[in-house]
């Protein structure tokens, strides 16, 4: 089945936020030994690859996205020995392991930056982005930090500003400097040699900035309530043409090894996103497609974006879809618990590699975080407009015990007050739970070539119902997703069919005439049997 496909085309990627997966030593923070203890959950669920958010040494100003050593493990998560055991245990279970690579910036505590800021003549000065003040003494230009305020930080000791696209504790590396490229490529090889199966590259579209330091233009679409970063259009700070060479350089490192994968984090409109495959597919294997996170939950809109995405893919470019991650509200909160089941069916029946976020298989919602417990620096810098990411980063509930069985200590973020119902153990015992649905969907996807590698026909909205056909070797499946909470009817294109799976998990095997009745919030996968 689909034997000419590579593992990263066939398998489902499961993102783990390591601080919140499983705590073994009781300090309230997830760790590698805990994660290893829970790998069997992933095998049971049926996903094939694990992507870990950063586990490197870090002052944790941005919870690990501020890296102080690109080739180590933060003691809070364990040791390199624990990491080697993690690789061994994932591979022993037939799972792949993908690390987060954060090449755009380091921590301000990284030895490279400490040297760089020590003097203007330091050999590593040019590893970061230093500029003289503007004539009035202010920042060199108007570039903003994604997390609020200017992107420039004044350094008193050497009388220059350095640029940081994120926190001031995350100075941007200078990717125009070949020494920076070499050093980061070496760090990649360190992990590839240890056996990791690939990287998800953090903010890959940010790596190169304008070499003429031009001001970013005003964003005409800026409106109150938006994050202040959106006041400008980041045309000179991100998605610069030269970035594609840098991406190709990362790809060459990965390609020197067997079947490893390069994934890029990219928030750009579809026509720019697909440029990151590279003109001759020399870029990222999978430029992450976040359209389902950004789109309205509407049959017309989603049908249009599936078509637009498919039409924009370069020849041979493999599609992918992401439903949730550690930077966005959880799907169950974005669309509600009933539609979260429909969303699961959508993610797992679209063409291309799906990426699932830990806890979404349980229908975990955002957990409201009271102000005194806020951890996320973005929320602290830009409070009160809903940009905080803590609600989607709360501990995984494993059972109905205290703290969901995640920790014996005090969890670093609170668990929801619904853990008695929403947890792995309870949902495993409930044959109609969203966890059972996800497992059934995964089993069907992985065993049915029409879903794993089939093409599309007829992606269409029918009123509130999104429909598409997946076909492979004469086998045709209709997916019909009712995106609303009222009943709806669609006509079966081939006259008759057999329901393979419903999001309600109660009508598998039922035969249908030429009209298919969908209940509120119901999605179905129908095998078309007529001609
Ligand atoms: C990416 C990460 C996010 C982080 C930022 C800075 O967007 O996903 O969590 O804060 O980069 O590294
Ligand atoms: Ca721990």
Number of helical stretches of at least 4 residues: 16
Total beta strands: 19
Percent of residues in helices comes to 10-25%
Identify the overall geometry: globular
- In the CATH hierarchy, the third-tier topology of the largest domain is known as TIM Barrel
Mean pLDDT over the full residue set: 97
Q: Tell me the count of domains.
A: 3
At CATH's second level, what is the architecture of the largest domain? Answer: Alpha-Beta Barrel
The structure class reads alpha/beta
Would you identify the CATH H-level superfamily of the largest domain? Glycosidases
The whole-angstrom Rg is: 23 Å
Distance between the termini: 24 Å
How big a fraction of the residues is strand? Answer: 15-25%
Instruction: Indicate the low-confidence ranges by residue numbers.
Output: none
Description:
The chain is α/β, with parallel strands linked by helices. Helix content is 25%, strand content 17%. It is built from 16 helices and 19 strands. Strand 13 (465-472) and strand 14 form a beta hairpin. Helix 6 (178-194) runs parallel beside helix 7 (243-255) and helix 12 runs parallel beside helix 15 (434-447). It is globular and about 75 Å long. The two termini are 24 Å apart. Alpha-D-glucopyranose (GLC) is lined by residues 62, 65, 102, 166, 202-203, 265, 326-327.
Summary keywords:
531 residues; alpha/beta; TIM Barrel; Oligo-1,6-glucosidase, domain 2; Immunoglobulin-like; 8-stranded parallel sheet; 6-stranded antiparallel sheet; 16 helices; 19 strands; 17% strand; globular; binds alpha-D-glucopyranose; binds calcium ion
């Amino acid at each position: 089945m689909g034997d000419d496909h590579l593992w990263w085309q066939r398998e489902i990627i499961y993102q783990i936020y390591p601080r919140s997966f499983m705590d073994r030593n009781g300090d309230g923070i997830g760790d590698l030994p805990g994660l290893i203890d829970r790998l069997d959950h992933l095998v049971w669920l049926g996903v094939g690859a694990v992507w870990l958010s950063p586990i490197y040494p870090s002052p944790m100003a941005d919870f690990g996205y501020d890296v102080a050593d690109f080739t180590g493990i933060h003691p809070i998560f364990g040791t390199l020995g624990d990491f080697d055991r993690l690789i061994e245990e994932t591979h022993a279970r037939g799972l792949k392991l993908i690390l987060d690579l954060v090449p755009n910036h380091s921590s301000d505590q990284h030895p490279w930056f400490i040297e760089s800021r020590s003097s203007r003549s330091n050999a590593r000065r040019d590893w970061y982005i230093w500029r003289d003040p503007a004539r009035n003494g202010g920042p060199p230009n108007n570039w903003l930090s994604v997390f609020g305020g200017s992107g420039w930080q004044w350094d008193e000791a050497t009388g220059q500003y350095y640029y940081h696209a994120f926190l001031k504790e995350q100075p941007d590396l200078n990717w125009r400097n070949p020494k920076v490229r070499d050093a980061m490529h070496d760090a990649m090889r360190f992990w590839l040699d240890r056996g990791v199966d690939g990287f998800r590259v953090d903010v890959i579209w940010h790596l190169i900035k304008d070499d003429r330091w031009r001001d970013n233009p005003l964003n005409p679409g800026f409106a109150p309530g938006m994050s202040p970063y959106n006041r400008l259009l980041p045309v000179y700070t991100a998605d610069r043409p030269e970035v594609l060479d840098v991406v190709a350089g990362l790809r060459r490192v990965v390609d020197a090894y067997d079947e490893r994968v390069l994934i890029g984090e990219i928030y750009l409109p579809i026509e720019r996103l697909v440029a990151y495959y590279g003109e001759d597919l020399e870029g990222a294997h999978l430029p992450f497609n976040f359209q389902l996170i950004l789109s309205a939950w509407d049959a017309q809109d989603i049908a249009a974006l599936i078509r637009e995405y498919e039409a924009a893919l370069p020849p041979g470019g493999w599609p992918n879809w992401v439903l949730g991650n550690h930077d966005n509200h959880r799907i169950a909160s974005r669309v509600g618990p009933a539609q979260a089941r429909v969303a699961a069916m959508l993610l797992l029946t679209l063409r291309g590699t799906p990426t699932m976020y830990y806890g979404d298989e349980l229908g975990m919602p955002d957990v409201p975080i009271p102000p005194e417990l806020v951890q996320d620096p973005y929320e602290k810098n830009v409070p009160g407009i809903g940009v905080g990411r803590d609600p989607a980063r709360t501990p995984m509930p494993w059972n109905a015990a205290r703290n969901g069985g995640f920790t014996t200590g005090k969890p670093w973020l609170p668990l929801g007050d619904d853990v008695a119902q929403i947890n792995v153990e309870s949902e495993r015992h409930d044959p109609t739970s969203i966890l059972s649905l996800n497992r059934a969907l995964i089993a069907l996807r992985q065993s049915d070539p029409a879903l794993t590698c089939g093409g599309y026909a007829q992606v269409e909205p029918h009123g509130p119902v999104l429909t598409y056909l997946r076909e492979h070797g004469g086998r045709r499946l209709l997916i019909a997703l009712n995106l609303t909470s009222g009943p709806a009817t669609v006509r079966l294109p081939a006259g008759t069919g057999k329901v393979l799976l419903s999001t309600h998990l109660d009508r598998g095997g039922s035969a249908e005439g030429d009209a298919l009745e969908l209940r509120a919030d119901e999605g179905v996968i129908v095998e078309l049997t007529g001609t």
